[in-house]
Amino acid sequence: MADERSIASENPHGTGEVLARNIHALLLRREREELTKTREERIADSITRFTGTMRFVYIHVALFGAWIAINLGWTPLPVFDKSLVLLAMIASVEAIFLSTFVLISQNRMAALADKRADLDLQISLLAEHEVTRLLGLVTEMAKRMGIEGSHDPELSELAKHVAPEKVLDKMEQAERQIRERS
Questions:
Q1: Total of domains in the chain
Q2: Does residue 99 have a pLDDT over 70?
Q3: Of residues 113 and 1, which shows the higher confidence score?
Q4: Which pLDDT belongs to residue 105?
Q5: Which of 68, 73, 108 is nearest to 85 (CA)?
Q6: For residues 160 and 36, what is the distance between their CA atoms, to the nearest angstrom?
Q7: pLDDT at 110 over 90
């Protein structure tokens, strides 16, 4: 894996060390998450990855097509599943297992997505706090310097800290009201 300096040197157009560090940290995190997968998760992911390819589709078209052609008597080969019940059973069992593997992979990916969403929320809350603090400081500086517009009432509203739990409560309340009207 590339280190931070090589990532930064690959993009000399001012993306900076912070971006390089962040990219490096995310790549390391993904690598660590990959290493912590269980053998069963690796198997499920491999199967899911393969079944989501056109090669898988082509193999099935060829196998099922040949099976049907043979058992409808279109070839000189002996018929072994005249009613195609065996083919239907095999396809059904395969569908059960494939859907299970897909669900296993999706559950793991959903858990990772939840972690990333929590990280996004924490970063957004931190950024909101920092912007609120900066806005308060800049507004206070503008007032002391006598800059016009520094007494805008909207600035004092924006400089208040947001309580995320209250925002969520308001959102839930609005959603309930919309549902009740429907």
A1: 2
A2: yes
A3: 113
A4: 92
A5: 68
A6: 42
A7: yes
